[in-house]
């Protein structure tokens, strides 16, 4: 098993990255080396492992960040409850072949406390998940921008960042940020990892008891219903999928929409899909808020 190097400051991260990229360039001088960044908030599971594997397969150097970003939480209790499992995370990252782990403190990332200036997610960040969590995506984009600055190659190299498709709205917003603000990084979305029963892997799943987990399976079943109709070229019957979720006791649906993945604008129901489409949903199951999605076309 690989033992990743753990660094906790940007001052440590940059020379460590430069050393690894310089070695990669010397080993293969015919091409530009590549660096991958996989941002995480820790409490890693097999879904995160798939991100690391994708990054490892395509890049010379892989860096993972582990940072619980306080700007993403609107409830202080939720922030306090978020699991911190750095030792276990390092084991998983080692098995996945990660080279560097950047695990900064809150003081390292926000040395003056809550930042006075932060990025805005705009109107794309105020709907769906953003409507339920005001300001959440402003916090996401602010910390991701800082991580891009910290982890950017200090020597000539390609720079890629990997995110899970499970957080589909987040991926859409990060792509928009990179395009609008000209960040020199390529964004890759890695498909959702699901347990054998179909539930999307999430660090929050550990808070579900057996009955709640069983009830939560209706989410993936409803998405599969839409995927099957889209694959068959049939009209988009979102109402039937919504009814399926609402019929499940113990599941409180927040939203369920089919949108254009580039703009997050809703698509018309009842018509066969004519272009890219993404089904998004969120629901509360017991004490846990779960999100899921499916690419339909």
Structure description:
This protein is α/β, with parallel strands linked by helices and 297 residues long. The chain has two domains: 5-190, HUPs (Rossmann fold, 3-Layer(aba) Sandwich), CATH 3.40.50.620; 203-292, Pantoate-beta-alanine ligase, C-terminal domain (Pantoate--beta-alanine Ligase, Chain: A,domain 2), CATH 3.30.1300.10. The chain has ten helices and nine strands. It has a six-stranded parallel beta sheet, with helices on both faces. A three-stranded antiparallel beta sheet has the order 7-8-9, with helices on one face. Strand 5 (158-164), helix 8 (168-181) and strand 6 form a beta-alpha-beta unit. The two termini are 38 Å apart. The mean pLDDT is 93.
Specify the CATH homologous superfamily of the largest domain: HUPs
Helix fraction by DSSP (H/I, runs of at least 4): 25-40%
What would CATH call the architecture of the largest domain?
Answer: 3-Layer(aba) Sandwich
Q: How much β-strand is present in the residues? A: 15-25%
